[in-house]
């Protein structure tokens, strides 16, 4: 593998969300600030949506790491839960013993409320963070509404942050969950990265992993931004394939051949190339080769 060849301490473009690689670009930085501001004001529901691969899970984990000791983070990465399973999972995150099978669900709900009251008296606030929230069932959403009813005369006992794909907005537009929709006080939609942000993102990941920023040139990064449309996951996939190809040829840095081959080996990028874009891409590659020949001269002439 190319990790040792390029002197990386870890793989720079792994798809596993790693907060060490968090890149404080505008989309994620703004989202993090919105969430933290909403939490500081003890608002009920907070919603963050974004297309597949825009970095929601990484942002989710960054949020958990960023919370102060005032907050107790309860993280549920798996939303495919029945209402009872959701209640049990939440209780487990709060440190409530759910091992007794004889404990009735209503008793468990009371135990959750008592735990939240205890935390409030200690000056702490529970935050329930749910990833892939677009997959929550209607009944599970109703359970979240019941959780959000837990409050004192002055403030909420629980704050809920939902991370999900755009389908979450579609689900919340249904009249049957209008009470939840009306309780969402802050929303943020993650956008894809701009070309300049992709440039910085790639350089950041290369150097954070201990490698050289020159492994993938700025010209190649602009091309990558075009074909991936700034989707972080696709950028990672393409860059990983580029480095694999460069390593396979023993090259010290990537070139256009490695990059074009990596793009056409990635279906989500290849499908995005309409004929007009393909012509533009070919023109860019030809110009790049012509520039090199002009600079170094053409052998034999």
From TrEMBL:
CDD domains, sorted: AAA
Keyword match Transmembrane helix: yes
Keywords recorded for this protein, A-Z: Membrane, Transmembrane, Transmembrane helix
Name assigned to this protein: AAA family ATPase
Membrane found in the keyword field: yes
Gene3D superfamilies: P-loop containing nucleotide triphosphate hydrolases
Molecular function GO labels: ATP hydrolysis activity
Entries under InterPro entries matching the protein: AAA_22 (IPR049945), ExeA_AAA_ATPase_DNA-bind (IPR052026), P-loop_NTPase (IPR027417)
One Pfam assignment: AAA_22
Taxonomy, superkingdom: Bacteria
Ranges where the ORC1/DEAH AAA+ ATPase domain occurs: 42-170
Transmembrane residue ranges: 279-297
